[in-house]
Specification:
With 157 residues, the protein is mainly alpha-helical. The protein contains seven helices and two strands. Keywords: Membrane, Transmembrane, Transmembrane helix. One of its GO terms (molecular function) is ATP binding.
Length: 157
């Protein structure tokens, strides 16, 4: 069995085999789920900042109801898109094998991410979490960018 990275042409072969509409639907579901995840975290962060705004004051019921409603809606949206994503991926026997029988190696392969996502540990949420951290604490970029460059060269070279 061969090991190594999968060529882009192999990904295109998978996309053609699934059909372009279905492939677009899968990527759209992943994208919307991540938007809901990021929105969920940003909303929770904004909600916790209300403690500063309403310090030693009565918390208005209208603000509370709005916060709870949006928080719940984002949670439900996230749950629906996770469910849809898992329903779509049912029937994939072993997504870590390329059509030519090559085993996907390395943490940077899409199919490896897909396998981890199926097991209930969404890798794409890690990217969303990094985005939220960088948005809230821009100095974090001074640490994460050099680490990402080192990681890239360790994985590729």
């Amino acid at each position: 069995m061969e090991t190594g990275t999968v060529k882009f042409s192999v990904y295109l072969q998978y996309l053609r085999a699934m059909g372009w509409c279905f492939s677009f639907l899968v990527f759209l579901i992943y994208f919307i789920q991540n938007i809901a995840f990021i929105g969920f975290n940003l909303w929770l962060s904004a909600w916790t900042n209300d403690a500063v705004t309403y310090f030693n004051q009565m918390y208005p019921a209208s603000v509370r109801d709005m916060r709870v409603g949006v928080f719940g809606a984002l949670g439900v949206a996230q749950g629906i898109f996770i469910f849809l994503g898992r329903r779509i991926s049912v029937g994939v026997s072993d997504p870590t094998h390329a059509p030519a029988g090559q085993r996907v190696a390395g943490a940077h392969g899409f199919l490896r991410h897909h396998t981890v996502w199926q097991s209930g540990q969404p890798v794409y949420q890690g990217y969303g979490t990094l985005f939220v951290i960088c948005l809230a604490t821009p100095i974090f970029l001074a640490v994460i960018v050099p680490l990402a460059v080192v990681y890239y060269f360790v994985q590729v070279k």
